[in-house]
Amino acid sequence: MLAMDFPTPLVLVDVDGVLNPSRPSSTEYRRHWVFPGGLVHRLSLNPGHGAMLTDLASETGAELVWGSYWRNRANTWIGPRIGLPPLRFVPIPTPRPSRWTTPGRWKAEQVAAWIGQVPFVWLEDDPSIPGHLAGQRGLGQHLVVTVDPDVGLTHDHVERART
Ligand SMILES: [Mg+2]
Questions:
Q1: Which one of 59, 71, 99, 153 has the largest count of C-beta atoms within 10 Å of its C-beta?
Q2: Tens of pLDDT along 131-161?
Q3: Ligand 1 center–CA 95 separation, angstroms
Q4: What b/e readout covers 85-107, taking b as 16+ CB neighbours within 10 angstroms?
Q5: How far is the CA of 137 from the centre of ligand 1 (A)?
Q6: Considering the entire predicted model, what is its pTM?
Q7: Looking at residue 134, what is its pLDDT?
Q8: What's the pLDDT score for residue 96?
Q9: DSSP assignment, residue 153?
Q10: How far is the CA of 15 from the centre of ligand 1 (A)?
Q11: Are 92 and 69 a contacting pair, CB within 8 Å?
């Protein structure tokens, strides 16, 4: 089957440190206060990011997917503020405090289990992710584009993902 031979590649998009950098320098960022689950978050979001990502997806035939602990909440609180349509999301459970793991390791394991052999690019700021993914068996072709959490997603990262 064609669909199985050539699965649509995925672009996983993290939120914090990628779309919401900790020290945004550019004047393109706008400040937002949001209240997912009643918890206050201060966000800095770049309304240009939506078009950067949707152009990347349409030009490469890839699908954008949230790869973030925001999960489906990103569709409510993040996407509409930067011009992204509702996206599928990796259902990453919040790590249990008693379990021996790190957030990066847990996230990499959950993504690997969900994604299987589908090829993907992952826009992510946690620098431990590539190492943890390397330990996962049975993954398809993939690339982690590591983003500086202070700066956030730039055109450079999107070009690396496109290539
Ligand atoms: Mg992050």
A1: 153
A2: 999 989 999 999 999 999 999 999 999 999 9
A3: 15
A4: eebebbebeebeeeeeeeebbbb
A5: 23
A6: 0.93
A7: 93
A8: 73
A9: -
A10: 6
A11: yes
Which residues on adjacent β-strands are paired with residue 63? 10
> DSSP state, 36?
G
Q: CA 140, 1, 67 angle in degrees (round to 5)?
A: 35
Residues of the chain with pLDDT under 50: 1
Tokens in use for 97? 């405090």
Distance CA 158, CA 145 (A): 9
Which residue's entry shows tokens 């990502």?
53
Backbone dihedral angles phi then psi of residue 66, each to the nearest 5 degrees = -70, 130
Give the C-alpha separation, 88 to 72, whole Å. Answer: 8
In the reported structure, the alpha carbon of residue 70 is separated from the centroid of ligand 1 by a whole-number distance in angstroms of 10
What confidence score (pLDDT) does residue 85 get?
A: 98
Distance 16 CA to ligand 1 centre (A): 4
Closest to 25 measured CA to CA, from 158, 151, 156, 157: 151
pLDDT of residue 5: 67
**Residues around the ion ligand 1 (C-beta < 5 A):** 14, 16-17, 125
pLDDT at 99: 67
Distance 140 CA to ligand 1 centre (A): 22
**Cβ neighbours around 5 below 10 Å, total:** 6
Rounded CA separation 45/50 (Å): 10
Domains (range + CATH), the chain: 10-162 (3.40.50)
